[in-house]
Amino acid sequence: MGVYARVQIGSVQVIALNRLDGFSSGNFSQLNVADYVGDDAENVTKNINKVQSLIGASDIAVMSAEHGNNVIKVSQGGKCLPSDALVTQVPNLALLALSADCVTVALIDTQSELIAVVHSGWKGLVAQVLQTAIDSILASGSQRKNLVAVIGPAICAECYEVSPDRVAKVSEINSAAILDSRHIDLCAGIKATLVDNAIRYEQIIGCTFENEDLFSFRRADGEPTGRGGMVVCLCTDEESS
Q1: Distance CA 102, CA 229 (A)
Q2: Exposed, middle or buried by CB within 10 Å (0-12, 13-18, 19+), for 113?
Q3: Which pTM does this prediction carry?
Q4: Which residues in the chain come in under a pLDDT of 70?
C-alpha cells in the first residue's frame, strides 16, 4: 500500500512510506519519490501523486534536501527550493521529506495546527537542522508545550559505520548521537534535541538498512536506488480522516 506506518495526531496525519506498490521498476522499485536518482520522471510523478492520495491531501510540497539547516515556509505544492525543513499552516497541503537512510521528523503544533517535516543525516546533526526548525516554529508563535514530534525510520546505529573523523564532527555538536568510535546513532541524536527542547515524541521503529521494504542508500552499495521518506498533512476533508 505504500504505508510503512501511519500516525494520527488530532487532524494531522503522518505517514512513513515504504517502497511498495508504486510505479517504478528495477533498482527504483517501486514507490520511489525522488526525481534526481535516475528514475523515469513519469513514474516518479505517479508515485508522488499516489503519496498525495494516500494521505488525502489536495496538494503536496516536495522537499529538495541539501543536508544543511535551511527552513522554508510553504504555501503551495510542487518541488521546493533547497532546504531540509518545510513548515506550513495550510490545510490539506502535504509536506514530503525524502530519505533513504537519513532520519525524517514531523513536528506538529497541536494548538495552531502548524506542521513541519525535517530531514537529517549526520550533516544535519552537525548543522543542527532540527533545532533550527524548532526555533523557527517557536519564533512564529508556537509554544513548546504544544509541540509533538514523530520520528521516522532510519538506519540504526549498529548498521551506520562511518569514519572516526565523521564521528568526531558529530560528537562536537551532538554527543548523544555517538554509539562508539565508528558508529553514529541518528535517531538518538534527534531524540536528544527533542528532549532538550521538552518536546514530546513518538518513534516509528525500523532500520532502513535491515528492512528490505524500505529504501536504503547503504544497502544499495553504490547502485542507484530510490527514496522513500515521510509525509505529513493537516487533513480537514472528511475523506482524509
Answers
A1: 9
A2: middle
A3: 0.96
A4: 237-241
